[in-house]
Design goal:
- The protein is of the alpha/beta class.
- It has two domains: 3-156 and 212-265, Vaccinia Virus protein VP39 (Rossmann fold), CATH 3.40.50.150; 160-207, no CATH class.
- The chain contains ten helices and seven strands.
- It has a seven-stranded mixed beta sheet, with helices on both faces.
- The protein is globular and about 50 Å long.
- The two termini are 33 Å apart.
- The chain binds S-adenosylmethionine (SAM).
- Residues 5, 8, 12, 17-18, 60-62, 66, 80-83, 86, 107-108, 123-125, 128-129, 204 line the site of S-adenosylmethionine.
Length: 266
């Protein structure tokens, strides 16, 4: 494991993400769909009903909510993540709903399989690695011709103000994750996280040891180099160097600077 993977991994062992409260089918299929999945699927022109029977890879699945959502809708799901504690929570979630998901504990860069996938998702993962494009290429190679790949990353412009906040936290609490978390809990969350999800969310947002920042054009370039045609994005962006730059400037005020881009393998 490289140095970044080591520190990111020990962080997610401690704070598995997103640790959502999924208590029943309504939470898994209804709430998760309305809050998150509808936006993610729409970038690739997908609907829940179109997932049935499809081979899906969830690369960097975290605590497995999205993997379970795909399996709930009848997809054959393969998931991977570096973090043992995240995979263990993800397995429990799948068991709770009697869903079949094949979980693998590994780095994306080391993942080997004979399967080629109809749909690949990697949301909030590549920007926590030392070589996002290298790992993107691994995923692009695993996509069937005609299949889709959906990537979620922090945006170079949209994350700007947030970066200033992270710097302020670092100045006050230093590098140590525990000190950062107690600083965040006291200064931003009024002294107490309300639940485990809020704690996981705050950790990921404010105390993550490593994150990198990317632009729409950069990801379009990754797509082009791997024979992938752009399909859609969330938030909406115009494609083209100048127009996408203007769109990204509007993301300057966004809450977390996260953007999702989908493409289809030629
Ligand atoms: C912010 S969480 C995202 C989880 C999930 N994709 C979601 O959207 O809820 C990032 C996840 O990526 C995993 N991860 C980070 N680097 C990885 C790598 N190189 N290979 C596999 N998983 C990785 C972490 O362990 C963590 O669970």
């Amino acid at each position: 494991m490289d140095k970044i993977a080591c520190s990111v991994n020990s962080f997610y062992e401690r704070y598995p993400y997103p640790s959502l409260p999924i208590r029943n089918e309504h939470d898994l299929a209804g709430k998760l769909h309305a809050n998150v999945m509808s936006k993610i699927l729409s970038t690739a022109g997908l609907k829940p009903a179109s997932l049935s029977g499809k081979d899906i890879l969830d690369a960097g699945c975290g605590t497995g909510e999205k993997s379970c959502y795909f399996a709930y809708h009848g997809a054959k799901v393969t998931s991977l993540d570096m973090s043992c504690s995240s995979i263990s929570k993800a397995k429990k979630l799948a068991q709770k709903f009697d869903l079949i998901v094949e979980f693998n504990r590994c780095d994306i860069i080391d993942f080997k399989t004979e399967i080629k996938f109809d749909h690949i998702f990697s949301l909030g993962v590549l920007h926590h690695t030392n070589d996002p494009y290298g790992r993107f290429r691994v995923l692009a190679d695993l996509c069937k011709p005609g299949g889709t790949i959906t990537i979620g990353l922090y945006n170079r412009y949209g994350r700007f103000l947030h970066r200033a906040k992270r710097m302020w936290i670092k100045l006050n609490a230093g590098e140590d994750i525990d000190r950062r978390m107690s600083f965040v809990e006291n200064s931003i969350y009024g002294g107490k996280f309300r639940n485990i999800h809020e704690q996981a969310y705050a950790a990921d947002k404010y105390a993550n040891p490593y994150e990198s920042y990317h632009s729409v054009i950069e990801v379009i370039d990754w797509f082009n180099k791997n024979e992938i045609s752009y399909i859609g994005s969330f938030p909406h962006t115009d494609i083209g160097i100048f127009r996408s730059f203007l769109t990204q400037l509007k993301w300057f005020k966004s809450r977390n600077g996260f953007f999702i881009l989908s493409g289809r393998k030629n």
